[in-house]
From TrEMBL:
Entry note: cofactor: Binds 1 zinc ion per subunit.
UniProt KW keywords: Metal-binding, Ribonucleoprotein, Ribosomal protein, RNA-binding, rRNA-binding, Zinc
Family to which this protein belongs: Belongs to the universal ribosomal protein uS14 family. Zinc-binding uS14 subfamily.
Gene that this polypeptide is encoded by: rpsZ
Requisite cofactors: Zn(2+)
Coiled-coil ranges (or none): none
The protein's role, per its UniProt record: Binds 16S rRNA, required for the assembly of 30S particles and may also be responsible for determining the conformation of the 16S rRNA at the A site.
Subunit note: Part of the 30S ribosomal subunit. Contacts proteins S3 and S10.
Binding site for Zn(2+): 24, 27, 40, 43
Protein name: Small ribosomal subunit protein uS14
Biological source species: Pseudothermotoga thermarum DSM 5069
PANTHER family, per database record: 30S RIBOSOMAL PROTEIN S14, SMALL RIBOSOMAL SUBUNIT PROTEIN US14M
Length: 61
């Protein structure tokens, strides 16, 4: 888990648009973030299995 100071720094708008990148809103992970949900694949999977994301279901059973 990143420190609170780092999370606040990521939320601030950058000076240039090119420097901005997506991060997971829950854990702060920078890689494999789904833009539609603003969640990384790990948090997305966990929340989908718990039923916290409406309209999302497992593709294969």
């Amino acid at each position: 888990m990143p420190r609170k100071a780092l999370i606040e720094r990521w939320k601030k708008p950058k000076k240039f648009k090119v420097r901005e990148y997506t991060r997971c809103k829950i854990c702060g992970r920078a890689r494999s973030v789904y833009r539609e949900f603003n969640l990384c694949r790990v948090c997305f999977r966990k929340m989908a299995l718990e039923g916290k994301l409406p309209g999302v279901k497992k593709a294969s059973w």
